[in-house]
Design goal:
With 134 residues, the protein is mainly alpha-helical. It has helices at 3-8, 14-60, 66-71, 91-97, 116-131, and strands spanning 79-81, 85-87. A two-stranded antiparallel ribbon has the order 1-2. The longest helix is centred in the N-terminal third of the chain and has 47 residues, at 14-60.
């Protein structure tokens, strides 16, 4: 808004027009400062999201020491998008360089823990005790 526009609106006093213009300039500066703060906060939020996604990927890959593995990752090479996820993160390469930082993958066997022979023997003992057989 300009001085001329204020005169056209009916503000006749020059001091009042000057005060109004100064207040508008302060508001514009405050709005600009708030926008800058918002942009900085959003950038920091994106960095935290990216860090959390990388740490989660490390843990899912069986990492033992997240901080040690993070030290080996060039975070500038890693990109994070909420829809696409992490891009540019190669944990397999780090696993080859430093296998001691990762848990070894173990396949768990399903079962009761008893061997078939001992289970059959136990069933025979129960059957004999129940029916009074020896």
């Amino acid at each position: 808004m300009t001085d001329k526009e204020l005169r056209e609106m009916g503000v006749a006093d020059a001091i009042v027009r000057k005060d109004i213009l100064n207040a508008l300039e302060k508001e514009a500066a405050t709005g600009s400062d708030l926008q800058t703060e918002l942009n900085e906060a959003l950038a920091e939020l994106e960095a935290v999201k990216k860090q959390a996604a990388v740490e989660k990927a490390i843990l899912e890959a069986g990492g033992k020491h997240v901080k040690a593995i993070l030290a080996l990752i060039d975070m500038e090479q890693v990109a994070y998008d909420e829809k696409k996820g992490l891009q540019g993160l190669d944990l397999d390469e780090i696993r080859e360089e430093a296998p001691y930082l990762f848990h070894e993958k173990e396949e768990k066997k399903k079962g009761t823990g008893m061997t078939k022979g001992s289970q059959k023997k136990r069933e025979d003992e129960i059957r004999a005790a129940f029916w009074g057989l020896k």
